[in-house]
Amino acid sequence: MQVQQVNHHECFEQLYNQTPIGVALIAPAGNWLKVNPAFCRMTGFTCEELMEIRCEDLTHPENSSKNNVEEAGLLDNKVKDNIYERRCIKKNGEELWCSFHVTPVRDETASEPHYFICFIVDITDRIRSERKLSHREGISRNAERLAKIGTWKWDVVHDQITISEQVLEIFELDRTDKYYCSKDIYKVMSSVDVTSLREKIRDAEQRDPFVFEFKCARTKGREKYIQLRGLIIDDEHQQPIELNGVLQDITEQKQIEFRLQETIERYTSLKKYNHDAIISFDMSGNIINANPAAVKMTGYAVNEMNGKSIGRFIGASNLGLILRSHYGLAEKKMNTILHRDGRETEVLATLAPIIINNVNVGFYLIAKDITEQKKLLIAKETAERMNQAKSDFLAMMSHEIRTPMNGVIGMTDLLLDTPGLSGEQKEYIQIIQKSGDSLLTIINDILDFSKIESGKTDLAVDPFDLREIVTETVQIVKPLIREKELDIQICLDERLPVPLYGDASRLKQVLTNIIGNAVKFTLEGSIEIEVLVKEQCEENVYLKFKVKDTGVGIPAEKRPQLFEPFYQLDNFMTRKTQGTGLGLAISKKLIELMHGDIWIEDSDEIGTTFIFTACFKINNEEVGQRIEFSQNNNRDTHLHILIAEDNEMNQLVLSKMIEKKGHIVDHAVDGKEALEAVKRNAYDIVFMDVHMPKLNGFEVTQAIKESLSSEDCPYIVAVTANALRGDRERCLKAGMDDYISKPIKSESIYQVMETYYNKKQKNHS
Fold first, then answer.
1. Nearest CA-CA partner of 541 in 631, 649, 635, 614
2. Strand partners, 296
3. CA 186, CA 191: separation in Å to the nearest integer?
4. If exposure means fewest CB atoms within 10 Å of the residue's CB, which of 167, 318, 325, 542 is most exposed?
5. Using alpha carbons only, how large is the chain's radius of gyration in Å?
6. Is the pTM of this model over 0.90?
7. Within 10 Å of residue 725's Cβ, how many Cβ atoms?
8. Is the pLDDT of residue 177 over 60?
9. Mean pLDDT, the chain, as a whole number?
């Protein structure tokens, strides 16, 4: 066989031109010396164009422009070749990734190479594939990080566990080993969880996923909840050789579950321990659930009620209203809940909608048992009726008691003005008068007991001399003091201001009660009365009153009850004394209105010592103007006055008081006669008794107001034995101009006249 001679030069030339790999000769300066067609096709440049540029000019602008040949040490013969990858740019601007294999060519004697042979491979497709894979892996890693899920694989045979980066992040660990073993995993679990996990793996079947949750404590005491999901792969002998799966941080889900569970437990507790019956039912009226209170109210167990119609307990008509969406009307009509034994429980019902996903799926019926409340309401209404009956009775008693008192006190006033009285007679009459005044004050308090109970008693602010008040009070009980032959000692502070401003009658009432009790319960010995200035400022003075006796005394255990209503001092003794038992209770309330207090002094001495404090004003400019009438109660003009009164004694007393001042008086014994008299004569003032036969005072007043003009209408003054709270307001509302209560004092009459004069003068001016 003939051997054909091979032209090596032509062969290499053919390979150089036909190979798909780019081949180029590069000068040490970096310019192209020769390039093959494959490299021209790669770059899109012609051979001539490449000869005019440097190899660095093909480098992508975003990549480093360092000389890889020089950097690799090819110039100084440090290495024989160099392989590197570089991103280049084609003539049309597209991206081109190339792998460069550079080999220097030099003489054996030369230190620097003559040129470099460079083999160039287009790796653009490989780089793009790697990028896509890396992108997908990045998405997967981000998804795992967002879901807090990591992957794991356990080679059971070699006890090697491979875990992803996300698992390390979940456990807040740094990667120190590529592989872990089961002991490393068990370290982050409690011994109980380790035992449970082993049992879970042992009991799991091949290809059947198992799920296991456990808790681990990490940094700063924080706890994490972990869920482990895995699959077991067995060998041919049914022995596990591999486990793999995912691990997820479920701490947030667990916290939501805990909050949800807490809400459910609170809701359950609210229903379970609520005193009101709570029954839930759907939109068809079928019962869903009920609480223990509902079980008690209906007599049915929860499982017996479930599925039954709520109409069984509230009535079919009420259920019909609910199903027709008349919820407000249904709430008003649901007044009872039916028990299984037929009895009914009175309730106050409320309907609350059950809203799920913005849809009304049912209702809660909340039924409050108001049986006891109804009893209390009935008792309250009964008490109010009794209280009204008491008020009516007190009003009647007020009229019946005050009518004879009017004669006693009125005639005493007239008797004092009688000339020729001896000093002793005048003294006796004054004592009668003062005793009557004190009795009237007590009657006022008893008849107006509701006012005393409510603590709304109003105190007057008038000038008075405290020395006179104490002296007058002692004079009232002087006869009993003389009878018992008791010594009386009065000690008044020299610093007492004169006058004081306050309610003298109320203070006198308190003193009368306390001094009277001291005299009443003292059989022998003495009574000491002391008044001291406790504190004084520019406008007020605080006084301390002390009443000490040598009587029988009061046991310590009885003292707290002394100031209670209807408690009598002698309950612990014999029934020799009588009383209402209101004295000290009223006194305590009056003293509190005077910004003071009352108590019994602890002492080993015989008898009892009452102490109380009170505050009074020492400056009041308005009072002088208000009592000016007492100094100017005589006017030149004589008045024509009608007294409409059916009681002869009251007519006489009132007439004498008015006639003493020179005024003209007419009488009318009933309402009809009074109305005719007013129509017939022009009266300046009419003293109108409220309770009269034929027509009462209110009816007469209304008729007068309707028949006469305001200029011709007389000044109508209500005269009534009623002195309860609100009587004055009722009289004025009925059209009367003023109001006085029985028993009538001359001072009250003159004050009415002065008011009339002032009003008349004001109208004329």
1. 614
2. none
3. 8
4. 325
5. 58
6. no
7. 14
8. yes
9. 80
Checking if the pLDDT of 544 tops 90, the result is: yes
DSSP code, position 284? T
Q: Which residue in 764, 755, 761 sits closest to 630, CA to CA?
A: 755
- φ and ψ at 174, to 5 degrees? -100, 145
Residue 297 has pLDDT above 60, yes or no: yes
* 471 in Cβ contact with 509 (< 8 Å): no
Tokens standing for residue 750? 């003159």
| Beta-strand pair 715-720/685-689 | parallel
Peptide bond into 37 cis (omega under 30): no
- Per residue in 342-390, pLDDT (tens digit) is 888 888 888 888 887 788 888 889 888 888 888 888 888 887 777 677 6
Task: Give the Cβ contact number of residue 760 at 10 Å.
Answer: 14
Rounded distance between C-alpha atoms, residue 33 and residue 723, angstroms: 135
| Number of CB atoms found within 10 A of residue 663's CB | 19
Of residues 94, 77, 184, 87, the one with CA closest to residue 130: 87
d(CA 569, CA 562): 7
Q: Compute the Cα dihedral for 740, 745, 749, 752 and give only its sign.
A: negative
- At 296, list the tokens: 């008690």
* 5-20 pLDDT tens trace: 656 677 778 888 888 8
Q: In 3-state terms, what secondary structure has residue 208?
A: coil
Rounded to an integer, the average pLDDT of 62-81 is 57
Q: Tokens 């010594």 identify what position?
A: 487
Residue count (the chain): 765
Identify the H or E element spanning 67: none
Res. 156 pLDDT band, cuts 50 70 90? confident
> Please, which pLDDT band fits residue 432 given cuts at 50, 70 and 90?
confident
Half-sphere exposure for 610 (CA within 13 Å, toward CB): 26
Between CA 444 and CA 452 the distance in angstroms is 10
Dihedrals phi, psi of 556, to nearest 5 degrees: -60, -35
Which residues are within 8 A (CB) of 237 and not within 5 positions of it... i.e. 6 or more apart?
A: none
- Residue 577 pLDDT level (bands cut at 50, 70, 90): very low
**Strands 540-549, 738-741: pairing kind:** unpaired
At residue 543, does pLDDT exceed 60? Answer: yes
Distances, alpha carbon 434 to alpha carbons 245, 441, 474, in Å: 109, 11, 11
- CA distances in angstroms from 516 to 473, 529, 603, 608, 686, listed in the order given: 9, 12, 21, 13, 40
CA–CA dist 675, 706 (Å, integer) = 11
Select from 360, 508, 352 the least CA-distant residue to 444.
Answer: 508
- Distance, in Å, from the CA atom of 603 to the CA atom of 581, rounded to the nearest integer, reads 25
CB atoms within 10 A of CB 484: 14
Cis preceding-peptide flag for 693 (omega within 30 of 0) = no
As given in the structure block, the two tokens for residue 191 are 């011994």
Kindly indicate the confidence band of residue 143, based on its pLDDT and cuts at 50, 70 and 90: low
- The β-bridge relationship of strands 685-689 and 640-644 is parallel
pLDDT band at 257 (very low <50, low <70, confident <90, very high): confident
Which pLDDT score, from 0 to 100, does residue 218 have? 65
Q: Which helix (H) or strand (E) holds 63?
A: none
d(CA 70, CA 497): 121
pLDDT of residue 627: 45
Closest alpha carbon to 663 in 693, 643, 678, 690: 643
| pLDDT higher at 438 or 384 | 384
Name the β-bridge partners of 105. Answer: 115
pLDDT at 341 over 70: yes
Helix residue ranges per DSSP H, 24-75: 37-43, 47-51, 68-71
Q: 86 is written with which tokens?
A: 């570089």
Other C-beta atoms closer than 10 Å to the C-beta of 111 total: 9
Alpha-helix runs per DSSP H in 464-577: 466-484, 504-520
Distance CA 425, CA 140 (A): 123
Lowest-pLDDT range, 257-261, 279-283, 540-544?
A: 257-261
